[in-house]
Design a protein that fits this description.
Elements lengths: L6 E2 L4 E6 L2 E7 L2 E3 L2 E4 L5 E3 L4 E7 L1 H22 L5 H18 L7 E9 L2 E7 L5 E3 L3 E4 L3 H11 L6 H18 L6 E8 L2 E9 L2 E4 L1
Antiparallel strand pairs: 1-4, 2-3, 2-11, 3-12, 4-5, 6-7, 7-8, 8-9, 9-10, 12-13, 13-14
Helix pairs in contact: 1-2, 3-4
Length: 213
């Protein structure tokens, strides 16, 4: 298949580190070249009860790596008898991404992730590049084709002591601005909140149908 026809999540994703948790959000559009292939894609979701990810890139690779990391988390927890940490999860996913792009480098720009969660060490969040690079997030991060626009909002309105309540509003604002200018992002958003209790979906909006809010 020609690269321009590959199904991609296009995407604007956001992760915001808060004083009382983590907010993660993403738009809902998938594209194949200039064609809008799907208007109801979920790009932010839990991979364990206390860890969530966002995806940006090729849909097939994102789905495959997500299945792998979910299975690996369960396997590690059974073997060790303890809950895997966010850092361990991010390192595992980064290693998978690195291996994936080296094995399938004929198609550039495979998939990037934002990872957030809570463990025995507290809250933690990371950005994983398409090349497998790993960067810790201590304020905020955005990924995908609309991230340039989202960053402008985050840079202007983020505050160090932000709460999850205000961060939810900020994340939605950043996504809405990005969707106005980035044709590969659109059709609504999903938002999850991570607290000491785990991962919870707190908002989902479809432009043509309000689902949750």
């Amino acid at each position: 298949m020609d690269e321009k026809n590959l199904k991609k999540t296009g995407t604007t994703t956001v992760c915001i580190y808060c004083k009382d948790g983590i907010i993660m959000a993403a738009d809902k559009r998938a594209t194949a070249g200039h064609f809008i292939a799907n208007k109801k894609v979920e790009k932010v979701f839990p991979i364990s009860k206390n860890i969530a990810i966002t995806i940006a890139g090729l849909v097939s690779d994102a789905q495959l790596l997500t299945k792998y990391i979910k299975a690996e988390i369960k396997l590690r927890e059974v073997k060790t008898g303890r809950q895997i940490t966010v850092k361990e999860t991010a390192n595992l996913l980064a290693s998978m991404s690195y291996s994936n792009i080296r094995n399938f480098s004929a198609v550039p720009g495979i998939v990037g992730f934002l990872v957030g969660g809570y463990d025995v060490d507290g809250f933690a969040s990371y950005e994983i590049g398409v090349d497998g690079s790993l960067t810790e997030i201590d304020e905020y991060a955005s990924d995908g084709s609309g991230s340039l626009f989202a960053y402008a909002v985050l840079e202007d309105k983020y505050k160090k002591d932000i709460t999850t309540v205000d961060a939810e509003k900020l994340a939605i604002n950043a996504l809405e601005i990005a969707q106005k200018r980035d044709s590969a992002s659109g059709n609504g958003y999903d938002v999850v909140k991570i607290t000491e209790k785990g991962v919870e979906k707190i908002a989902s909006y479809q432009y043509d149908a309000k689902l949750l809010h």
